[in-house]
Amino acid sequence: MIYIFGYGSLIDADCRQCTFPGEHAYAARLHGYQRYWSGLKSADDRSAVVITPDNNASVNGVLIPFDESFLPELDKREEDYDRVLLDVSQLDLLDTLPKPAVKIYTYVAKEYWHPQSNSPILQSYLDVCLRGCLAVNEQYAREFLLSTNYWVSHWLDDRHQPIYPRAINMDALALEQIDSILNDMAHLADYNPVAHS
Asked: Domains of the chain, with CATH numbers?
C-alpha cells in the first residue's frame, strides 16, 4: 500500500478530496522534520505550512492511503515542494493501518521564508488544517499549533471571503472549536491571531 504523509491542508478529508478520491486517513507523527509557515512561489498572496529536515523536531499529521496514478495531480498541487520517500521507522503510527506501507511519501519545502505582509497566514487555510486535526481530537489540533514555527503578525482573517481556494464546507461548530483553541494558545511566541467577533 502507498501512503502520503500529510501535515497541512491534506490532514483535512474535504480538502484532500479536491485533488484525489479520499479514503480514511490515519493519525501519525513524523520524526526528523520541523513544520514552518512559509511564503510560496506559486501562490504569492499567501503562506502555507512546509516541513524541512530537523533531527530534533517532529510533526503530527495523517497517513493517507493513495493510488499512485494520482501522483502527477498531487505533485502539481504541491509544486512548491519536493516529494520524498520516507522510511516507516521515521513515523509513530497512532492508528492501525489497514495494510502495511510499501512506500510512504511526503512533501518537503524546496525553500522557505517567513510570511510577509503580501503573503500572510490565511485564517481560511489554518481553519482547514485545524478542522483536519479536530477529526482526530482536540489535542491533535493543539499539537499542530505547538509544532509549527514562524507564527508572525502577518495574519489575514479571510473567513468571510476566503482566499484559500480549498476552504470549503466550514461549519459553525468547527469554527467555534477552532476559535476556542486559538484563544487558549495565544501565548505562542509571535502568535498574533485576529480576534473574531
From this structure: 2-184 (3.10.490.10)
CA dihedral (82, 105, 141, 10) in degrees, to 10, reads 70
- Counting beta carbons within 10 angstroms of the beta carbon of residue 168, is it exposed (0 to 12), middle (13 to 18) or buried (19 or more)? middle
> String of b and e for 99-138 (b: at least 16 CB within 10 Å)?
eebeebbbbbbeebebbeeebbbbbbbbbbbbbbbbbbee
The grid coordinates of residue 82 equal: 519536493
pTM value? 0.90
User: Which residue shows C-alpha cell 501562490?
Assistant: 43
How many angstroms separate the CA atoms of 84 and 50, rounded? 13
d(CA 61, CA 28): 6
Helix axes 172-184, 138-146, angle to 10 degrees: 50
Asked if 50 and 44 count as a contact pair (C-beta separation under 8 A), the reply is no
pLDDT tens per residue across span 11-53:
999 888 877 776 689 999 999 999 999 988 887 788 999 999 9
Alpha-carbon distance of 109 to 91, in angstroms, equals: 19
Please say whether the beta carbons of 47 and 120 come within 8 A.
yes
